[in-house]
Design a protein that fits this description.
alpha/beta; Beta-carbonic Anhydrase, Chain A; 2 domains; 5-stranded mixed sheet; 37% helix; 16% strand; globular; binds zinc ion; Carbonic_anhydrase
């Protein structure tokens, strides 16, 4: 797909189509959203929340899951809060998420089918990488969102900002609140 992308991109820049997207790196609506990488949410999620280019920092992971407290997702949230002026955090999972049906054993089988050796898998596991835990999804999106919300709220480096949990319908864009944080927004500026 790369060639198609580059060809399109040339036109895009030449025709100055970027003009309608001009903004800054600071989120106009002072929020950061952690959501899922699901393809149905690319445009639907911002549209359903009335977010335009420049309005929010959006961090994506498979399943909108934070997983580790000092991994890339948590770091992104921390940077959005401290360096980019996000004063409110939204964790937005969705129904029919691919991470709700993921089977670690099946994925490991696919590793081998795609040429990863059993040896490599054993080496990783012997080195303390628990692939089953690492690949595990969730049974219930509401519980998963709540877990991520709690993890962010209780993180030792997260200041006193509201952290809300929501679930979005990937067909209609309807948002349901899982956990509304009543804490007041205190501006960072
Ligand atoms: Zn998903």
């Amino acid at each position: 797909m790369l060639e198609q992308v580059l060809e399109y991109n040339k036109q895009f820049v030449e025709k100055q189509e970027y003009k309608t997207f001009e903004t800054t790196k600071f989120p106009n609506k002072k929020c950061v959203i952690l959501t899922c990488m699901d393809t149905r949410l690319i445009e639907l999620l911002p549209a359903s929340m009335n977010l335009k280019n420049g309005d929010a920092k959006i961090v994506k992971s498979a399943g909108a899951v934070v997983s580790t407290p000092f991994g890339g997702i948590m770091r992104s949230l921390i940077v959005a809060i401290y360096e980019l002026g996000a004063d409110e955090v939204f964790v937005i999972g969705h129904h029919d998420c691919g991470m709700s049906s993921i089977n670690p054993e099946a994925v490991k089988k696919k590793f081998v089918e795609r040429g990863i050796t059993e040896d490599t898998i054993h080496t990783l596991e012997n080195a303390g990488v628990n692939l089953d835990d690492w690949l595990r999804g969730f049974d219930n999106v509401t519980d998963s969102v709540q877990q991520s919300v709690d993890q962010i709220r209780n993180h030792p480096l997260v200041p006193n900002v509201p952290v809300h949990g929501l679930v979005i319908d990937p067909a209609t864009g309807k948002l349901d609140v899982v956990d509304r944080d009543e804490k007041a927004v205190t501006s960072s500026k």
